Amino acid sequence: MKYFLNSEDLIYTRALLFTWESDSNPSSFSETNGQFFVNQFNKFIECSSSETVVINCNHICDIDDHALKAINTLIKGSKLNFIFYSSDSNHVFCEYLEEHFEGSDLNTDSRTLNSCNRFFKIEQNQSINDICLTTIKKNAENIEKRAITKLIASSYVIAGDNFKLSSTPLKATGHFNANMINSQPSSFRWIVSIMSEVIHQEVTKSKFISYTIVASSLRGVTIAASVREVLHYVSNAGFHIFDHFGPKHDLKELPIRRAFKEKEQCIYVGDFLIGGTEVKLTQTYCNSLGGELSKAFVLGKYTKSNNLGHNIAIQSLVQLSDCITDLRYELV
Amino acid sequence: MNILHLTDLHLDNSNGINEALRSGFFKEYLHDLLEYAKQYKVGKVFITGDIVNCYKTDNYIQAKNIVAHICETLKLTNNDIFVINGNHDLDYKSGCKKEYEQFVQCIDNEKELLDSHSRYSIFKTNNDIFLCLDSIGDNYETGYPECITEQADQIIRTISDNDYENIFVLSHHPAISKDVADYVVTEEENWHKKHLWHSGNILLKRLSNPAVNKKNIFWFSGDIHLPEHTVIDESQIHFTTGSLYLIAGSNDGKIHPQARLFSSNNIESSQLCTYQIKNFKGTSLLGNWKKEDINAVIQKTSPKKIAVVEKQQEPITHYDFQLLSPELEREIYNCVKTEKLCKFGNFKEKTGYTSLSWVSVTGLFQDQGIYSQVILKFRKKIKSIIDCSEYDCGDYIIVGIDNWGAIMASRLGAATNINSCSIAIGNNNSSHLEEEVVNDKLKNILSSKKGVILLTDVISTGRTLADILGNLDISENVSTFIFSIFFDNNQEHPVSFEKYMHLYAACTSVRLPIIQSSKLFES
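Output (structure tokens, whole complex):
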């Protein structure tokens, strides 16, 4: 996935994508990141005719003094509309923009809509009212959803006849391989950014004071650990790996484990959920160590239900049947 | 022997009014420094290049005056002064260094010359060898360091043929940087390529081979305008010293002009003299020389043996090992100790060795700050590896081993734009999917790469790592870099790391003892 996603009307990106390649944590936006943003934008804009740029600023918790120097020059030198927004109750980026552009000649405005969405708009070619802002945000999110669906579909590996899933006794025509996503830096950055946003919204909604992110497969831990890193400055999550029990489970090989705090809220982060065996096992282990697992977040799920049973609510970035239309899993 | 190290004089306009080393001011400027040198009983003075600025050769007259003044003040002769050229001493259009050669001829003409070439001169004085190198060679257009491989054999032969006490090497570009590069590299693009002399580093390794030389090597350099004093394996002593030049009004916020005093009798410390201007932001050149004791950064590339392990069949040989940050190591060590993350026990391996301890990396990384620091240090090192190579990110792959290796692989892939993958080990490979272990697909991918960066959490006996590397069938042409959070380099490991060449660790001070299982009681 590229840094910028495009439709006829708008260009969409996330500020968080530009922070990984720097000497600080991903939640900090530096001057170098700003310059990097502009470099990537200039490469992209040559082949785009869209007139509005939408930048999701979620999970940026710290901004350097000169972070927007290059972006400022870019904005002034273009005739595009720019919409920055955040919905993570943090709003550091939008607030910084408000201060930065105060008294500027540009036509700027800042809005808070639906109680938690903060917008900062720079109008250069058309006027954007509040209804338009909400619609544009929704359109941008749809572009992102389509791109993620396409990305996850690309990780599907067609298997031969009689292919069985490893963790659940199901026959399948193929399987999704999260390694193909995790191994590509650009895809990984998008996945982690979106997953962080989804988890943060749920944690905020559930009013968790403290919680631990748990993972139990090699492919799940990579996403889980980076999500934890991104969320560190907004919610200080713990992190626990149930080492080496998914997808083929061997009780004997479980290593030394730590106990959770009493009734510690555990959040499962994994790759794909088909039958849910791995999540249920993780829940059992969390319970045995004193924790409570009630939420699971995955890249894709097969089941249509958003509840796995055992009081586990599932949130998935995509529905796997939307990625591969003739996807079938059958009991062996 | 007591030495005064000066470098990067950058004489630009000796008859002007702005430079501290100008004809009308240099005696005042150097007065206190030379007093310190006199008290230190300096016997030799090394000047490591960039005598003049931008090939402004008229300034060699002033350079001669400065050398003469130093000799007079310290009661030395030209035989005690050793000078090499820097990139500014060459015409960047033609590579001509005629004027420099005339200047240095006056200084060197009475020394005992053992061997010489356009790229080097080897002198012998009082039973010590002095190897003066030109690190620029034909790279005069860029001023970057250039290969010296062709002349290395002759240098080695000449040195091997002589008896001596110590070898003193002078080069403008440093052959190593263990400390400075870590924080400078992010501020200047391609810093390593511009400033580090890799060919010089190979020469250093050859000179350090006991078959060639069993004595100490003292290597003095300039160019990077920053100080560094490193001792490797108690026998290779490296110095870079900041520049001596000072231009009025130009020192706002920059490193102070400096010089170094060093005694070969005490290799682990030196005195750094810095010139501090009285009115910091003004244009005056008046100031004071101050000196402070500097302790060397101590590096070890070969592990020490410990008594508990008997001599193994496979001998430990030389490999490039580096602790990435002493500060980070201390932080990790303290966390392991405070949080009681290390457990002692009997962790037997199938290979006949037993680890006597186990450390919880998940416990360590509950501290997000430590995790971030490890990622940043690893990232910096990976970036510098790529900057130093002729290949780009697409020619490398990051391979993470097991959970924490996999986590770091994806994270560092995202931070460096290098593709990554992960492989699982465990005690029983049958409990992993085929895609999670070393498979043909991964081997095919690796076969098209020029460099493999392996990430793991703990290296104990090293067997797992050796098995993986064996299974991956990595070609000899592919450079392999191993990064581990924990590696106890005080152990004698049953495998040799030599073929892997480069091993970097975040913490070496947490003891991870290993022993042959046959030496343990069954109970």
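Chain B touches chain A through 42 residues (CB under 8 Å).
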